[in-house]
Structures are given as C-alpha cells and as structure tokens.
Amino acid sequence: MDKSKRLFIKSKRSFRRRLPPIQSGDRIDYRNISLISRFISQQGKILSRRVNRLTLKQQRLITIAIKQARILSLLPFRQKAKRFERRQSTARTVGLRTRNN
Fold first, then answer.
1. Among 43, 44, 53, 23, which residue's Cα sits nearest to residue 35?
2. Which whole number is the average pLDDT over 91-101?
3. How many Cβ atoms from other residues are within 10 Å of residue 65's Cβ?
4. Which residues, 6 or more positions from 3, have their beta carbon under 8 angstroms from its beta carbon?
5. How far is the CA of 31 from the CAs of 1, 15, 50, 65, 68, in angstroms?
6. Domains of the chain from N-terminus onward
7. Is 69 helix (H, G, I), strand (E, B) or coil?
C-alpha cells in the first residue's frame, strides 16, 4: 500500500484512553447512587454497554441496581422533560377552535 493511501485510512484505535467506569473497589449496589447515576442518560434511560464501556456482568448488575433504586424511589423513572411554551394562536388555528358542533 502506498504511503499516500495510508494517510486516509483512519485508525480504529482511539487516542484518548479513559479510565474504566467502575473501579475495583466500587460496589455495584442500589444504594450507591453516585455510581449508578453515571450510567443513566439525561432522559433517565439506562445507557448501553457500548457507551458505558462495561463488561456484560457489570452491565447486568448496573441494570438491576438501577431498577431496584427506581422501585425504592431513590432514582426517578423519568427525568423532567422540557416544557413547551404556548405561543399566541394564529388566525388559522383560532378559526378551528371557535367552531362549535
């Protein structure tokens, strides 16, 4: 392969190495809210294994812990969604609303 062609091939390896999300001393438990909350998205969904960079066993334990914490109301099931502001109704929608059948 030419040197010129090698320049355009992207490396699959990331140059940034992150620390593993769960340290060896961390205990995966429903009471450890600070650990569990790292694996939940802003909408309140459980993040996938690929995003979390967890092993299968760790992901299972995290999922169980999150579900237990939700049931015991230590974590919310859903995060508060953005509330949409009401705009002034336009002439087109005003005519539809005023119709009485």
1. 23
2. 58
3. 22
4. none
5. 55, 35, 24, 8, 9
6. 33-72 (4.10.640.10)
7. helix
101, pLDDT greater than 90: no
Query: What are 76's two structure tokens?
Result: 């919310």
What confidence tens digit (pLDDT) does each residue in 46-83 have? 999 999 889 999 999 999 999 999 999 999 888 776 66
Question: How far apart (Å, rounded) are the C-alpha atoms in residues 16 and 82?
Answer: 33
The span from the CA of 65 to the CA of 87, in Å, is 42
Residues 6 or more apart whose CB falls under 8 angstroms from that of 58 comprise 22, 28
Report residue 65 as tokens.
Answer: 């812990």
C-alpha distances out from residue 27 to 1, 19, 67, 70, Å: 49, 17, 16, 18
Count, in order, helices (H) and strands (E) of the chain: 5, 0
Return phi, psi of residue 68, to 5°.
-65, -40
